[in-house]
Amino acid sequence: MLHASDFKEFYDISAPLEVAPIYPGDRPFSQEWMARLNEGDSYNLSALALGSHAGTHLDFPSHLLKSGKSQDQYPLKRFILSAEVVCVSGDGPVLSGCLQGSKIDKGQALLFKTDNSQKRLMHQAAFSEDFVCLSLDVARLCVADGVSLVGIDYLSVDKYGDDSLPIHRTLLENDILILEGIDLSAAPSGVYTLICLPLSIKGAEASLVRAVLVR
Q: In whole angstroms, what is the distance from residue 83 CA to residue 211 CA?
């Protein structure tokens, strides 16, 4: 049986909701206090309002596909898997050449650490249109290699303004889950175990997650 002491490194790659940017058109995060101890109430109680694609979140095929699977149609093992953090430099789309020399195992996750993490974009409330996204070539390579999940360190794998969403569609049509809004600034490149459990909501096309890397 595994214990926390079996792991030497822990990285929380989730972005704090109160500081994370909001994709244009999405509902902003808010926390309303219904009761407060320091105001004389006998307990603290808050209510949250936010979109399902806020902060660090998973996209499921039903996000774009009429017959696509939703969150509740996946077993838990799809959210606990081997993952490689791949460091990519430059301000253009992530190209397939960055995976040259990588041994990609079928069913693993690939998490792309780009200049988005270096700039700490997931810790800036103002949305940046100029973020590093994925290229169609790298998405197709992930499909060919049987990758189970692809992660990016900002709010979309697609270029801002491209409403055809070719990267989303290429991945989701091939049952590759998409983990968006991760913060890899503190995580070195290498292989880890990724834990990214979604909320249990029937029919959810996306879900917030607390994403963690351990090794």
A: 12
Per the structure, the complete domain to which residue 198 belongs is given by 8-15+52-214
Could you list the beta-strand ranges (E) of the chain: 10-12, 30-35, 45-49, 57-59, 80-87, 109-113, 149-152, 177-180, 190-198, 206-214
98 occurs within a structural domain:
yes
Considering all CA atoms of the chain, what is the largest pairwise distance in Å, rounded to the nearest integer?
Answer: 61
Q: CA torsion angle for 158, 161, 163, 167 (degrees, to 10)? A: -10
| CATH (domain of 110) | 3.50.30.50
Residue 193 lies in a domain: yes
Going by C-alpha positions, the residue among 63, 17, 48, 73 that lies closest to residue 156 is 63
Question: What pTM does this model have?
Answer: 0.96
Of the listed 57, 63, 123, 168, which one is catalytic?
63
Is 57 noted as a catalytic residue in this protein?
no
How far is it, in rounded angstroms, from Cα 24 to Cα 170? 23
141 neighbors 123 (Cβ within 8 angstroms): no
User: DSSP 3-state assignment of 116?
Assistant: helix
- Per-residue pLDDT tens over the stretch 157-197: 999 999 999 999 999 999 999 999 999 999 999 999 999 99
DSSP element (H, E) containing 138: helix 136-144
Residue 22 lies in a domain: no
Which candidate, 104, 109, 174, places its Cα nearest to that of 145? 104
Total structural domains in the chain?
1
Asked, for residue 38, whether it belongs to a domain, the answer is no
